Amino acid sequence: MVRIIIFPLLYRQETVTRLPVYAADDVLVTFRRRLRQPLLFEGYSVNWHIQGGRILTDRGLETADLSVTGGILSEVKAAHASTIDADGLLVLPGIVDIHGDGFERHIMPRPGVRFDTALALKDTDRQLVANGVTTAFHGVTVSWEPGLRSLDAAKQLIGAVCDLRDTLSCDTRLHLRWETFALDQMAQVVQWLSLSPRPIMAFNDHTTGSVMNGTIARKIGQMAERSGLSRDDYMTLLDQIWSRRAEVAIAIEQLAATARANGNVLLAHDEASPEERVYFRALGAKASEFPLTLETAKAARQMGEDVILGAPNVVRGGSHNGALNATDAVRAGLCTVLTSDYHYPSPLHAAFRLSSPDASDFPLIWNLISANPARVAGLDDRGSLVAGRRADLILVDAGDPAHPHVVATMVQGQIVYSSGLSRVDRRSAQRSPVNRAS
After folding, report:
1. pLDDT, tens digit, for every residue of 71-125?
2. Where do the Amidohydrolase domain residues begin and end (predicted)?
3. d(Cα 366, Cα 169) in Å, to the nearest integer?
4. Which end of the chain, N or C, is less packed with Cβ atoms under 10 Å?
5. Domain range holding 312?
């Protein structure tokens, strides 16, 4: 069922499967363009007072109230704020996902079967907020391959993100995954580095692993399939790309220098050894994404660097391609960030697999999907429920810890998703000025 939720100064369209939050005849609907920011009708937003919930702090979960004024967390309850009764619910920082390419399954759910990019992004947006993700960096691969990860596909996707960003519920950003053998595509990547907000930039090398029969080689069939080539044609193209390997190191150093000067966060993906970590560290890559060996992860952590792994690895009980076990890495202190990777429900579920709300380590585990990725991305305005930060938060019913349920998602003070949030008193809503944030 599709409905329009009407707050005194805003509207939000969403698809739900439970009973409506409000009766359909509450108010008269006036249609206006939705905004990602809580800048509703002449720069005003609804203030909130969330009461009775168990709020996550550094000390653990504490039953307390939380106020939102102008899209920002506040220690002081705004006059005439709307009240949300969160009794029995956990109030948690919104999930910050800095590496996710699940949207690719919305664009191409089957090999060779493509859907409209804007349609795919809008569907992805609904899935993100329904799973508690309030900030998402779409991992856009820029490769030498044709097809789904080609330069043309990246142009189409990035153009659509730029066009739609202000209408999406989740704060949607870009994570440019440049294949280091995509030499002819580098000039376009340089231009994209200047987009606002600044994209994350990651160095990816799936080419060497394919040629040298590494961990990537087993995916050759899948890679050929998504590119629209036969396996033989793909291997012929791979040989041509490999013949230019002498040019790669210089290109990496040039792009790294440009990104550093431009202020982009730099990451290195699939590092195969401590030596590679040293190399990319010198180029400014501040974190190791999906290191291929335990020794590489240790090398990063010994230098106080972040190690990023996939939450699906935790949920499934191991890597689908034989890489590091993320649960073991977390327990050993060798993983500091978990991402959706290819499955948007996984960050939420991974946190509850690794800990439980009453456990002493629950705040540290939740940091893996909130405060830590926000820090890596350079976003110091979110990731924890502290006064002065953005009101990016989720209400979670953890009655069944194996299947935690997101009851509501709030992005900068707007309820952008709800499922079963039937206890909202909005009779005393009042307008409050909102600061426009980029």
Report:
1. 999 989 988 899 999 999 999 999 999 999 999 999 999 888 999 999 999 999 9
2. 251-417
3. 22
4. C
5. 95-376
